Amino acid sequence: MPDQILDQFDHFPDYVWDGILAGVAIVIGLILKFMLSLLLRKKPKDGRPAFSAARAMLSRLGKPFSYFLPLLTFNFLLPLMKMKSNVTPVLNKTVEILLTISFANVLIGVIKVFEDYVYHTFDIHKADNLKERKIRTQLQFIRRLAISLILILTVCVILLSFNNLRKIGTGLLTGVGVGGIIIGFAAQKSLGNFLAGFQIAFTQPIRIDDVLVVEGEWGRVEEITLTYVVLNIWDQRRLILPINYFVEKPFQNWTRNTADIMGTVFLYLDYTIPLDPLREELGRLLEKDPLWDRRVKVLQVTNASEKTIEVRALMSSSSSGNAFDLRCNVREGLIKFIQQHYPQCFPVTRIEEPITVSRPLTGTPG
User: Fold this and answer.
1) Which domain holds residue 313?
2) What is the pLDDT of residues 322-334, one digit of tens each?
3) pLDDT tens column, 58-108
4) To the nearest whole percent, how much of the chain has pLDDT over 90?
């Protein structure tokens, strides 16, 4: 019976037979991909964590496997095709190149699955996230580097599969010394940024989600690439700086070792202000404010001029964002307190009139 079926197929034209094999390869590949999806697609159980390796693989590898598995199946069926001798090498080379590209796409998907796992394991959305920000900074750099290497190696494999290009590459190797020097001079800025990226990824003067003050701007590190850093400014602008900026120039990092930070409020008041009631009011404001982390609570006179005294309220908070809001709350509360109880103690300008002494009239009336 199978022999009879094969005999019937032998009567088909070659192009029909080849088309049937191509269709069978695509169908088999999609069926394999569907079976893998069924194995991975399970309903989450109660209490299951938010991250699922199966869901991550479906999301990241579903599309790459839709191309890779049919191409792989088609490659296995190529020897059964009845193509002309001049078409076979071209088709083989085309399938080989497409397989290389699709396999590279699968590898990139695997890297992204690993990235999803690390992002879930090291969650930065918590108060003390120093370790998590370290890991994410290194991961982001390594991920970009790994993807770049996969793309470069894919292009190299494709080019080296052609004999003509291989000969050209062998000839170019004889001039690699001079060419390397020329490329080094031409791309020294780019190479400097690339090496600075390595330095920042592992020495970590900055990390993802660090709070920085750079070029007079306050913001959080949103992205670190191989060549530049994106700073998310507080008003939602983006400050983009070359990555070697953070190796060559000074900047402020408010979350280098910990997210805890001090906040200050300065008030300029008249010399007649009583300080003890002001200290008591500062304590009352901080006690009722959930943004205060209960570490530091100080009110001091830090300066004095010929017209006013400078009063500094010092407080602590768990993060720079909370510290900013806490400072605003305390500043507003202290001003209201002074307005209600000591309005005369705001800065005033005093003007004194000279005292005139009246003298008795002398002489006799005329």
Assistant:
1) 261-345
2) 888 999 999 999 9
3) 777 778 888 888 888 877 777 777 666 666 777 778 888 888 898 998 898
4) 21
pTM of the entire structure? Answer: 0.52
- Cβ neighbours, 10 Å, residue 67: 18
Residue 100 near residue 108, CB atoms below 8 Å: no
Residues 106 and 148 in one domain: no
CB proximity list for 165: less than 8 A, separation 6 or greater:
159
Q: Is 18:83 a contact under the CB 8 Å cutoff?
A: yes
Check whether residue 146 and residue 242 sit in a common domain: yes
Q: How many domains does the chain have?
A: 3
Which residues, 6 or more positions from 59, have their beta carbon under 8 angstroms from its beta carbon? Answer: 116
Residue reference for tokens 């002309």: 84
| Token pair for 285 | 């404001």
Structure tokens at 319: 């993060």
Class of residue 355 by CB neighbours under 10 A (exposed 0-12, middle 13-18, buried 19+):
exposed
Contacts of 137 by beta carbon, 8 Å cutoff, 6+ apart:
200, 201, 204, 206, 207, 208, 224
For residue 309, give both structure tokens: 């005294």
How many other CB atoms are there within 10 angstroms of residue 167's CB atom?
10
DSSP string of 288-332, one letter each residue:
T-TTEEEEEEEEEEEEE-SS-EEEEEEEEESSHHHHHHHHHHHHH
